[in-house]
Amino acid sequence: MSPFSALRVAGLLARRGVAVNISVRAAHGHEISKQEDMSLPMYWDRKDTPLPDIPFQKALTADQQSLKQKELGSWKNLSEEEKIALYRLAFNQTFAEMKKPTQEWKTVVGGVLIFIGLTGLVVWWQRVFVLPPQPHTLKEDWLAAQAKRMIDMRINPVEGFSSSWDYEKNQWKK
User: Fold this and answer.
1) Is-above-0.70 flag for pTM?
2) Which of 10, 21, 76, 146 has its CA 20 to 30 A from that of 62?
């Protein structure tokens, strides 16, 4: 079976509600490693759907089966441990355990800070080794001479640059 036809079969199965995970091994050809029927009810621990379609544990031991039989009677006869054990048969996590915050934010913040640091190093390297030196037109003495020349030429005297200069006192207006 060629790789194209294996992917084609996977696509056809996926359209029919069957999930297929295809692992490709170069030396040994193609292999379908896992297949689950997505049309059957499945167990999920999710905050948005706290009641899954099926219980967490489907295959029960003899002790668990006897506990399930005891469950059919009065719950007043059950101890706290038995009630908790019955809950754990139906659910993997409590709602509080599902809502418990994870520490994943630390990994995200660390990754972002590392990325910002590496970007800073690249910018520094470019400023030192790649970019040409700053042009003379951006130095302080040049900018001061340019401003003096604009004032002498009375550039934009109504609302612009020269309107902020007091020509009688030879200083900036306050």
Assistant:
1) no
2) 76
